[in-house]
Amino acid sequence: MIRWRTASTTLYPTIRRFLYTFRCISTLSLPIQETPQTHLFQCNTRIRELGRLGRVDEARRVFDEMIQRDAVSWNMMINGYSQNGRVDEARLIFDAFVGKNVRTWTILLTGYAKEGRIDEARQVFESMPERNVVSWNAMISGHVQNGDLGNARKLFDEMPEKNVASWNSVVTGYCHCYRMSEAHELFDQMPERTLVSWMVMISGYVHVSDYWEAWKLFVKMCRTMVRPDQSILVVVLSAITGLDDLELIQSLQPIAIKTGYEGDVVVGSAILNAYARNGSLDLAMSFFETMPERNEYSWTTMIAAFSQCGRLDDAIRLYDQVPEQTVASKTAMMTAYAQAARIQEARHIFDEILNPTAVAWNAMVAGYTQNGMLKEAKDLFEKMPLKNSASWATMIAGFVQNESSREALEILIELHRSGAVPSDSSFTSSLAACANTGDVEIGRVIHSLAIKAGCQFNSYVMNGLISMYAKCGNMEDGSHVFETIRTKDTVSWNSLISGLSENYMLDDARLVFEKMPKRDVVSWTAIISAYVQAGHGEIGLDLFLNMLARGIKPNQLTVTSLLSACGNLGAIKLGEQFHALVFKLGLDIYLFVGNALITMYFKCGYEDGFSVFDEMPEHDLITWNAVLVGCAQNGLGKEAIRMFKQMEAKGILPDQTSFLGVLCACSHSGLVNEGWEHFNSMTKKYAISPLVYHYTCMVDLLGRAGYLSEAEALIKNMPVNPDSVIWEALLGACRIHRNVELGQRVAERLFQMTKPNSGTYVLLSNLYASQGMWDKVGEIRQLMKDQGLTKKPGISWIQVKNKMHCFVTSDRTHNQIEEICSALKEFHGCFRATGYTPDTNCVLHDVEEEQKQNELLYHSEKLAVVFGILSTPKGSPIQVIKNLRICSDCHTFMKFMSNVTLRKIIIRDGNRFHHFRDGSCSCGDYW
C-alpha cells in the first residue's frame, strides 16, 4: 500500500500531462478524407445524382468502391438502373441485396412497368413479402401506363387501403384512354381530392375536345373553394380557347388576379394566346402591352397571331421590338413570312440562326410545303441533323396537302424503316393519303401499325380511319372502327355521318345524327351538307331552321352548304337572306364563302354574282372559275371572254375548269371563232391537254352553229376516247338542224356504246317527228316499250312565299289548278290575237293540229309561270326551274308573257338559263 502511494506520487506528473494532452486531442476534429468512398451519406447522394443525370456507370463505380453500404445505397443503385432503362442490371443488384425492404421491391416493380414488361412487374408484385400503399399504387400505375385499365381497376378495387394517389392514378388511366364517363364517375366517388385530381379531369376533357365539360368542372372546383394553381389556369384557358368564347376569357382574368397569378408570365401568356386564337387581336395587343413580364412565348404568340390574321406588317413591327431575339422568336417570324408566301425572307431568317432547334428546322420545312415547294422541303429535310417525330409528320402532311399522296406514303415507309415509331399526326396524315389515293389495303396496314404503336385510343387516328375507310367506299370497316372507340367524341360521330353521306347512305347518316348524345355546329353542318349534296336542299333548309332553334350558331361551312342548296333550288330570296347572314356573322372574310355566293347567284339566274366578285378583296382560281361557269350557265359568252382576259392579265393561270367554263359560254352564245381560239390556246399557250369534256363543248358549239360535219370530224380525230355524252351532243345538233342521215349514224353508235337510255331514243324520235317520219317515231316508241324505257315527264318548280310548288305537264293535282288553267287559256287567247302561233313541231304525236295545240298549252313551265303571276305582286320577277330542255313553243310563249305582263321571267332548264324580258330572251333564240 505504501509502495503504491509512493509510485503514484512519483508518476502523477506524467499521468497528468498524458491526460491533458488526451483531453486536448479529443476536442479537435478527427482528420477524415473528403471522398465518397468513405462517407455513406455523401456516397448515397452521389449515386442518386449520377443516376438522375443518366451517368449510371459512374454511379456503379461509386457503389462498388463503398466500404460500407446501407439499404439506401442499394435502393439508389437499383433505382438508377431502373430509371435509365437498364432494368436487367437493376435485377442483378436486387438479387444480390440481402436486406430488401418494401421500397426495394417497389423500385424494381416500377422499372419493369416503365419498360413495358408488365408481366415481370406483376411477378415482382406477387412475390413481395409485404406491400404498402406505395407498392399497390406503383403496380396500378404500371398497368395504367401500359393501357391495361382492366387489371388496373381490379387491383384498385382489391386495395386494402387507398390514398388520393391511388384514385388519381386510375382516373388518369381512364382519361388517357379517353374513357371520360368512367373517369368522371370515379372522380365523383373520391373521398378527397387534390389539385392533381382536378387537373387530371379538366385536362382529360380538354384532350378529348369536350371543352364545355372542362369549363363546368373548373366552375365546380371554384365553388368548392379549391384555389386553382398555375397549371389549372393554363389548361382551363385551353378549354376556353376551344370554346372560342370571348366572355369566358374575360371572366377568367379576375380569377387570375384573386389567386395572385395576374403577373404570372405563364398564365399571362395563356390568356394572351386565348385572345389571339379568338381573333380578338386588339384585346390581345392591349393585354400584351399591360403584361408586367413577358417571356419569349408571349412575343411569339403575338407575332403568330398577327401573321395568321394576315397582318404581316404588324408582325414584323412587333418582331423588331423583341428585346432579345431568340430561336423561338426567329422561328415565329420565319413562319409568318412563309405563311405570307415570302419564302425568301423566311429562309434568310433561318440561315441567321446559328444552332437551329428541331422546331426551327420543322418550321422551315413546313414553310416550303405550304408554298408548294416540295423539292426544297425534301432537300432541307434530308439535311436535318436530327429528325424528331414532328419532322416526319411535317413532311407527310405537307406532301398530302400538296396532292402528292403517293410520295407521302413513301415517306411513311422510310420512317418505319428507320425504326422510329410514327406519331399520331403521321398516322392521321398517312390515312388521309390513303383516302386520296383510294388505296384501302395500305390503309389497313397503317391501321395495324397504329394499333401496334398504341394509337388505337387516339381520337384523331380513329377518326382518320373512319374517314379513310369511308372515302375508299368501305363503310363496313369504317363503322366497325367507330364501334371500337371506347369514348366517342363529337368528332367521331361527325366523321361517321360524313362517311355515310359520302357513300350515299343518307338514311343511316340521319339515324346516326339522331342518336348523337351531343351535337355541335359541325354535326349540323355535316347532315345539312349531306342532304344538300343528295339533292334534298329543302330538307337541309329545314334542318338549318331546327339548328337555329336550338341556339347553334352557323359557321362558314354551314352557310356555304346552304348557299349551295339555294342555288340548286333556285331559291334566290332565301339566298339573299343568307347573304345578309354572312355579313351579320362576319363570314364574308372567308374566300370560299364569297365563291359560294357567286355560284349561288349565277345558279339562280342573277347577275349579282358579278357584284359579289367586284366586292371581294381577293380572288383565287376558284373565284374566277365560279364566274366563268356562271357566265356559261346564263349564256353570257362575251362576258365570259372578258373575264377570262382579265384573269390572264392578273397573272392567274387558267386550269381545265376555266376552259370548260369559257368554252361552254361560247357554245351557248354561238361564238364559234372565239371558241376555237380558246380551245387551241389550251395546248399551244398553257400546255393543258383537253379532256373529253372540252371536246364535248366544241362539238356542241359547232353542232349548234350548223357545222355538223366538222363536229363529227372532231370526234373521230380527237386523241381521247369519245363517251356517250359527246355523241348525244352531236345527236342533239342533228335534231336542231334536222339532219336525219347523220342522226341515225350517231344513234347507232350510241346504241353500240352503252346500254340505251331514254334520252337517246327521245332525241332520235324528235328528229324523226320533225321530218314527219311517224312510222320511225312509232318504231322508236315500241323499242322503248320493249326495253322498259319511258320518256321523262316535264317537271317545273317555282318557289312562292318560301314554299316550293311542283308542276308536271298536263297534271291537274295542284290545289289551284282550275284557276291556273283558266288564266293560262286567257293568256293564250290574248297572245294569239297579237301574233303568237303555237309551234306544233314540238308535239311528237301524229294527231290533229288542234290536239297538238292543246297538248302544248299545258306544259309544266307554262303552268308554273302562270301560277307565279297569280301568286306574286305585280311586276315582281318570276323564276322557274325545269328538269328538261325548254321546247321552242314554250320559249316563244314566254317572250309574249314577259312583254304582256311586264315581268322578268327566268327559266333554268336542263341546259342553261333563259332570261325573258320585254319580249326577248337572253339566249338570242340560240339554244
Sheet having the most strands: 6 strands, mixed
Mean model confidence by pLDDT: 86
Number of helices: 51
Q: Gyration radius, to the nearest Å?
A: 40 Å
Which structural class fits the helix and strand makeup? mainly alpha
Strand content: under 5%
- Overall geometry comes to elongated
Tell me what you see in this structure.
By secondary structure, the chain is mainly alpha-helical. 69% of the residues lie in helices and 3% in strands. The chain contains 51 helices and six strands. The protein has a six-stranded mixed β-sheet, covered by helices on one side. Helix 4 (71-83) runs antiparallel to helix 5. The longest helix has 26 residues, at 2-27. It is elongated and about 125 Å long. The protein starts with a helix and ends in a 6-residue tail after the last strand. Mean pLDDT is 86; it is low at 1-37.
Break the fold down into its secondary structure elements and pairings.
Elements: H1 2-27, H2 40-52, H3 56-65, H4 71-83, H5 87-96, H6 102-114, H7 118-127, H8 133-145, H9 149-158, H10 164-176, H11 180-189, H12 195-207, H13 211-223, H14 230-243, H15 246-258, H16 265-278, H17 281-290, H18 296-308, H19 312-321, H20 327-339, H21 343-352, H22 358-370, H23 374-383, H24 389-401, H25 405-417, H26 424-437, H27 440-452, H28 459-471, H29 475-484, H30 490-502, H31 506-515, H32 521-533, H33 537-549, H34 556-569, H35 572-584, H36 591-603, H37 608-615, H38 621-633, H39 637-649, H40 656-669, H41 672-684, H42 692-704, H43 708-717, H44 724-737, H45 740-753, H46 758-770, H47 774-786, E1 795-800, E2 803-808, H48 817-833, H49 849-857, H50 860-871, E3 878-882, H51 888-901, E4 905-908, E5 913-917, E6 920-921
Parallel strand pairs: 3-4
Antiparallel strand pairs: 1-2, 1-3, 4-5, 5-6
